[in-house]
Fold this sequence. Notes:
Residues 1-149 form the N-acetyltransferase domain. This protein is α+β, with helices and mostly antiparallel strands. The chain has four helices and seven strands.
Amino acid sequence: MIRIIKTDASQPDFKKLVAFLDVDLAERDGEDHSFYDQYNKLHLIKYALVAYEKDLPVACGAIKEFEPNVMEVKRMYVTPEKRGKGIATKVLSSLEDWARELGYQKCVLETGKRQPEAIALYTKNGYKIIPNYGQYAGIENSMCFEKFL
């Protein structure tokens, strides 16, 4: 049974999972990692989720305001041994519900082309590819998505 809690970026289990995420992304992104890392600072995140299975943290995700009425999905991660079990979809759905509760109408996100699992997750959950926005405009490895809530 998966239990998801609402928290913020200061929560220890969220920070631990994000540290695992950053190691994974550093491997996938290689030399590009420092570029992406600058846009993933935790002090900017007020809305975070941690998913637990039997009191063990197994996944996380977050949202932060991108612009009025738009939240950006950030810091999605599932531990390797728990992947493929639908946990990421549960976290993403919970983030979308939270964004709706807060009055937002759309979610956007960026992911890397070297993350096929993430691309599949977002596509499966109704996200559409959009032109790369903001700091990701012109970045070859980035793919940006949006979903109206």
